[in-house]
């Protein structure tokens, strides 16, 4: 079942500079082979539900396995029969905006 999520995973209690932790988290997502896009506020990941959620779990564990508290914000769009919604949703919006 195709799943598109938006997820933000952040460490707590490690100071103000988070980029090294975020880099590790993105590395886990990248090695999953799933389609993803990272923005300043989070990452969108698309694929089969079990693959997406397994990747999120592994990404969270990059923090928790070090004893670091993880804050996770996740939204999901589960749409059977559709694929590549990470691109097509934006294309539809852009088409309507252009007019």
From TrEMBL:
InterPro entries with a match to the protein in the record: MTH1187/YkoF-like, Thiamine_BP, UPF0045_domain
GO cellular component assignments: cytosol
Superkingdom, taxonomy of origin: Bacteria
Domain Thiamine-binding protein, chain residue ranges per copy: 6-93
Listed Pfam families: Thiamine_BP
Family that this chain belongs to: Belongs to the UPF0045 family.
Name assigned to this protein: MTH1187 family thiamine-binding protein
